[in-house]
Structures are given as structure tokens and as C-alpha cells.
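I need you to check the entry underneath: sequence plus C-alpha cells. Let me know what the C-alpha cell row says about the fold.

>
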Amino acid sequence: MARFLLGLILGAAGSGITWAITESPGWTAAIGTTVAVVVWFGEFILDDLI
């Protein structure tokens, strides 16, 4: 549950920063989703890489 909430918070922060810089809905959604997914599945991704 903690990883889910952290992903939501960091994804929202990434989206907010992207929106402030670009004001592009496409980039905002892409960055927010990417950050959230990397946080949620980061443990599995790192296990495969190491």
C-alpha cells in the first residue's frame, strides 16, 4: 500500500512539474503515468536487471 501511495504522490508531482513547464496534456499524462508505473513496478524491474 505504501508503494501505491508513493507512486500516486510522485506521479502527481511529476505531472504538476511537467504541466508547469510545458502546459501539454499529452506530456503531462505520459510523465505522470510513467513515474507512477516505475515506482509501482520498480522492485520487479530492478530484480530483472540485477
